[in-house]
Design a protein that fits this description.
alpha+beta; 2 helices; 77 residues; four-stranded mixed β-sheet
Length: 77
């Protein structure tokens, strides 16, 4: 298995943000009160989901899209 491309859909909730993706049959979801916390939680969730495959991701390898994707992408780098 080659390292899958990760695309997380970001949604601004009433309180905070959520992110979800379905990658290679693995549902990955997380949330955060701030965009910075969301970034940390995305990395933790993605790396945990692919730990058995020995894949390690950085935030630069994860595409963020959705309602707040532009703000999130700019804030998370």
């Amino acid at each position: 298995m080659s390292k899958p491309q990760i695309v997380m859909d970001i949604v601004k909730e009433d309180e905070g943000y959520s992110a979800v993706a379905d990658i290679a049959g693995r549902l990955i979801g997380t949330q955060g009160d701030t965009l910075e916390e969301l970034k940390e939680n995305i990395l933790e969730a993605v790396n945990l989901a692919f730990s058995e495959d020995d894949f390690r991701y950085t935030i630069d390898e994860i595409e963020l899209r959705g309602v707040s994707a532009n703000a999130a992408q700019n804030s998370l780098h």
